[in-house]
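pasting input
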Amino acid sequence: MRKRLYFCTQNKKEQKMARPTINDIAKALNITPSTVSRALAGNTRVSAATRELISRTAAEMGYERNLLASSLRKGSTDTVGMIVPRINRQFFSNVISGAEAILNPAGYNLIICQSHERQEDEKRAIMTLMRNQVAGIIMSHSLETTDSKSLADITKSGLALVQFDRAFRDIEGASVTNDNFTGAYQATAHLIKSGYKRIGHLGGDLLSNVYTDRMEGYKKALADNGIEIDESIIFNDSITRDKGFYNMAKALQAGCDALYCSGDYAALGVIEYARHNNIDIPNEFGVIGTANENFAELLTPALTTLEQNAFDMGNRAAQAFLDIKQGKSDAELKIEIPMRLIVRDSSRKG
Amino acid sequence: MRKRLYFCTQNKKEQKMARPTINDIAKALNITPSTVSRALAGNTRVSAATRELISRTAAEMGYERNLLASSLRKGSTDTVGMIVPRINRQFFSNVISGAEAILNPAGYNLIICQSHERQEDEKRAIMTLMRNQVAGIIMSHSLETTDSKSLADITKSGLALVQFDRAFRDIEGASVTNDNFTGAYQATAHLIKSGYKRIGHLGGDLLSNVYTDRMEGYKKALADNGIEIDESIIFNDSITRDKGFYNMAKALQAGCDALYCSGDYAALGVIEYARHNNIDIPNEFGVIGTANENFAELLTPALTTLEQNAFDMGNRAAQAFLDIKQGKSDAELKIEIPMRLIVRDSSRKG
DNA sequence: TTGTAAGCGTTATCAT
DNA sequence: ATGATAACGCTTACAA
């Protein structure tokens, strides 16, 4: 009593009261902490009356359960870690939103880390998450990450792992990817049908499943239409705006009249090069991107592109995590989402 | 010994060993947990030899400190909570990156929540973060949040609070905002100098400091140039693309020949309306946005806009958090960042 | 229905 | 320089 009084008459700085614990509630009501704990957990083995009393007092005292203590004791947290290359890309931030939309209602919350496309940062992120005892990790690996070793450590230590978009195939655990092969196939086939004759490809780093699959889809579409594959008009580079601009010049030199690009930023570079050189898109030259970034429809001409299903992918990745927790086997959890071709002006030949 | 052997010869499912603790390390080396703890903490009062031995053994055993236990004991975490309305807006995700760039090197990591512009979600996020015992909260409140009550709870419970962009002025703690008043002033003055005669304003919700300040800046620029303020051409609405389109029609009816918009999406709507109605921007009509979204420079015509300093704002918000931890007084931590007008085609009159 | 007591993995305060 | 011990706030057998 004395102590409490003292405590409440401190000067302004100390007036911020320490957070009340279940012990404080117990003392205030002359019961034991265990009863309080049970009541607050909604346990049935507490009389309705005391349960009501306890939760009222808890609210009055401004009690908030200390998740640190709770999780330590229970040996598990309700936190899921998410690692993305960059948070400021539409695609990744929408995947995050999609995952959150499933996980929050399920009682989990998300801690998000960026790898900045660097393996070093990615490793650090994994360690951080593991130290924070997350219940699982949902991630898309950095482009710098070429071996799956650090990902293997995750499952080895018993954590649920869900890979999305970029996924190592030799890793146990769930994965949710786009059907990049079929998407690229459709895009390329569309260019062929539109009447373009010499169709090149701006691809990304071939160490990633995403870009190899798209290149394969591109090649298959050509092959199925009896067009010979010409490696000299396949440009595997980073798919930035600058590189798009740069490689468009080379594609023109090589006689291309269309490009399927593995990213909208590269396609943007292509369009800008064409604009600077008075090349008419789509009449003289056709271009298709990938991702449906928010600017794609705003360009002149509007960019034909492949929808990357970001929000849906987040949904499914989160659901896969929940499924793992339910004990579903990994084998059932290799998910592929179809991509949708959004036809706009940049590929509509005269 | 027997137990351990048993443990290591389980079948595949159970082979995932429980994480080693400092007790395991201590047992393995025949020393006490306290020494291990001290050594791993880099405490000097452990002989260099044992310290070396311990850290090697820890690495070998794959030890990772349990942050739950550590934080519980220490009474504080190295986690900072961040609440943003939406993660998939360039502005907010760049603020997050900016904050991360300061906090990670300082040994903190971030847990990010979205309010989806809803007060309900925001309250839940605050509770979640407090339950997770974060060291502080960096946030920009939702548009739905009109009273500062739940924010006051944060500081009241002793947590460091940094508001950014949207900030209640009556709240103790730090804040980092743009100088919206001066920014809007500059934008409007630029339109006047460019020769536009009847300049309207598409503003946002006046319950937010951001939009009131911009409107005031707009008004002051008119007043300083001897132009009468006409409330009938000030449209305070949500600053979406659709509303921009819609209000552009009204602005034209009211005889406007230019608009300063409190957001790039609204300005986009304006441009689209003009395009549909064959109105020549910038010759017949001038438009300026706010935020410098990534599409702004890509539009035709390219959009003049105000740079919102997202990354820098994140940097400063994080630094303000660290300053609070260092005991700096709140009074020094009310920061305003100047906005820069980026002049592009949409405001360059013939 | 409620109380007792042990323990989750650390760290801090004593000793030695 | 190292060890013994208590405590952080919570949950959960087990007992009553």
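fyi Residues 209-224 of chain B form the longest helix (16 residues).
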